[in-house]
Amino acid sequence: DGGITQSPKYLFRKEGQNVTLSCEQNLNHDAMYWYRQDPGQGLRLIYYSQIVNDFQKGDIAEGYSVSREKKESFPLTVTSAQKNPTAFYLCASSRQGNPYNEQFFGPGTRLTVL
Amino acid sequence: AQKVTQAQTEISVVEKEDVTLDCVYETRDTTYYLFWYKQPPSGELVFLIRRNSFDEQNEISGRYSWNFQKSTSSFNFTITASQVVDSAVYFCALSEASNSNSGYALNFGKGTSLLVTP
What we know:
The complex is a heterodimer.
Chain A: E1 4-7, E2 10-13, E3 19-25, E4 31-37, E5 43-51, E6 54-57, E7 64-66, E8 76-78, E9 87-94, E10 104-105, E11 109-113
Parallel strand pairs in A: 2-11
Antiparallel strand pairs in A: 1-3, 3-8, 4-5, 4-9, 5-6, 7-8, 9-10, 9-11
Chain B: E1 4-5, E2 10-14, E3 19-21, E4 24-25, E5 32-39, E6 46-52, E7 59-61, E8 64-69, E9 74-79, E10 88-96, E11 107-108, E12 112-117
Parallel strand pairs in B: 2-12
Antiparallel strand pairs in B: 1-4, 3-9, 5-6, 5-10, 7-8, 8-9, 10-11, 10-12
């Protein structure tokens, strides 16, 4: 089955630690995105990538980093510089980076800082 | 500034009632796309519909229907004869043709939480 997988489903982090959230897709999509969702809020864009080895900051990139070494994979690292990382993180992909392609979402990772 | 407004934070209905979820958007683009997504308790967003700015035809898919009105910048979503399985958070989103500097990422509203009780 084609789709997007994210792991882990739940992640707990101590203050000062970096953690990496995994996102893999087998849809052969060029574009991938990371969004952050806070309770009662919409989704906000952290980073996006339209092609392998290229990625750009979104609206709330501070304290986060990404890589796109393979088309299928777009991991997100939450660094200790992110002051309020507790949130639900969603990875998405679309066939190409254009305005009309719908985005497909993974099941999300819920990150909690202890 | 919020480009997509979903004024209804929470709605509660009894099964078999009809319910309409409101979405108002703001854009200066003449070419744009509107989306609705459903987020069930599991968390994964599920794509429901896309509508482009040049097509104001309403759409019906089973119990779901969408009313797009450019004159009022609205793209409302109606569920007819609601069911318990419709309980979820529903998001309206906007994609603008001019927004290449964010990879055409979606601008989401804050969502409407729908609870359908038996």
